[in-house]
Amino acid sequence: MKILLVDDHRILLDGLRFLLQSGEEEAEVSTASSVEEAWDMLRKDPPELVISDISVPKVGGIAFAKQVREHYPLIKVIFLSMHEQPHLVREALATGAEGYVLKKSAHEELLKAVKEVMGGALYFSNEIHKILVQRLRFPEDEKILSQREKEVLNLIFEELSNREIGEQLHISERTVETHRKNIYQKTKTNSLVGLLKFALENNLVSGLN
Amino acid sequence: MKILLVDDHRILLDGLRFLLQSGEEEAEVSTASSVEEAWDMLRKDPPELVISDISVPKVGGIAFAKQVREHYPLIKVIFLSMHEQPHLVREALATGAEGYVLKKSAHEELLKAVKEVMGGALYFSNEIHKILVQRLRFPEDEKILSQREKEVLNLIFEELSNREIGEQLHISERTVETHRKNIYQKTKTNSLVGLLKFALENNLVSGLN
DNA sequence: AATGATATCCGTGCTGGTGGGTATTTTTTA
DNA sequence: TAAAAAATACCCACCAGCACGGATATCATT
């Protein structure tokens, strides 16, 4: 069984390779520490399974998973991430990934996830399960930002003024203000600071990290 | 040689244990996923070396290192962290740690660090070295916020208005404004967003993480 | 004694963001 | 194809934040 591991922390990659190869299955594990590298390797020699981090510099694990799903729908995908924020988890699972394991889990759990997923099932850590259930019970929290709103949010965190954002997006400053209002409503925040905290906690902005 | 590993990601711990034990040295590796747990284990059976993450929930790896240094000055400490922000690195090394290895490094580098440190030397990843050199060349960047300014910054981060901050600290709103001005100058930022980004990058605020 | 950093206080006026609306067009979804 | 969501745009009133002026007191270091 061929597995491709993607994570920007080499040390984790090296450790994981050991772990996976020590599992009873004869696993052939290759590793990549960036999405670009991973994509190259995947095209040259498609694996059966991709295990990817989410917070990978630049492109990000979620975008990578989408790409994989689109071009190689048969390849299974498991996310291995430290993040357990509802919004992020939801976005990740919306790519159609077969698994989501938290980094704080024991390694046995990852091995189990691999086995389950390769057997055709899905596997999620307990915490992720809870989020899915929570989602059923409180669907009103579902409201996620639209694409445009995300763009505006990111430009806000580029320290641009509303006028500048308008110019950048070729829309009126008034429209930017409207977007801003809607963002505040959807995120239930009412100050720039609160918004920033929310955005960081939910990985909605691409600065930092 | 007894080694204590501290990190809140179990999977990383499991992988690292493999890596360290596969190194030629006969290493006896124990692991802890919280500072409290680590401290218990350390007291019961003191290791020669502690390898700790920095962003451990609640207490944090830096505080833990200080504690270890104070009560067991002979135990060597190596930080294994993803963070490479100058302020944070400086704070970490100020504890007197013998090493600082980035998680994005290859595992060979960690083994090398262990060997060097146990041999009585220090070991830092290249990126960390650069920060130390940079520090020598541009000491003017050292200017850190005063205690009062840090308090104000934290309250800003609590989403308080200047008026509320004034009440909280029993000072005039004007004074808060002055502090704010000085903070902006020192951090070379000129917007709330920029300031918050700076604060987060340099761990000046106690929210989040 | 002089210096620099810290901390405190005050007034004024401008501007950008906030919050209250309303409304049209396009796109997506059911 | 009808309904819903997203994106666009505008008006107006309000005020917090901030720039730009000032000012004084304390303390450690030089």
TrEMBL record, chains A, B:
InterPro entries: CheY-like_superfamily, NreC/VraR/RcsB-like_REC, Sig_transdc_resp-reg_C-effctor, Sig_transdc_resp-reg_receiver, Tscrpt_reg_LuxR_C, WalR-like. Residues 138-203 form the HTH luxR-type domain. The keyword DNA-binding applies. CDD domains: LuxR_C_like (cd06170), REC_NarL-like (cd17535). The keyword Phosphoprotein applies. Keywords: DNA-binding, Phosphoprotein. It comes from the Bacteria. Residues 2-118 form the Response regulatory domain. The modification 4-aspartylphosphate is found at residue 53. PANTHER family: TWO-COMPONENT RESPONSE REGULATOR (PTHR43214:SF43). This is Response regulator transcription factor. It comes from Algoriphagus oliviformis. The lineage of its organism: Bacteria, Pseudomonadati, Bacteroidota, Cytophagia, Cytophagales.
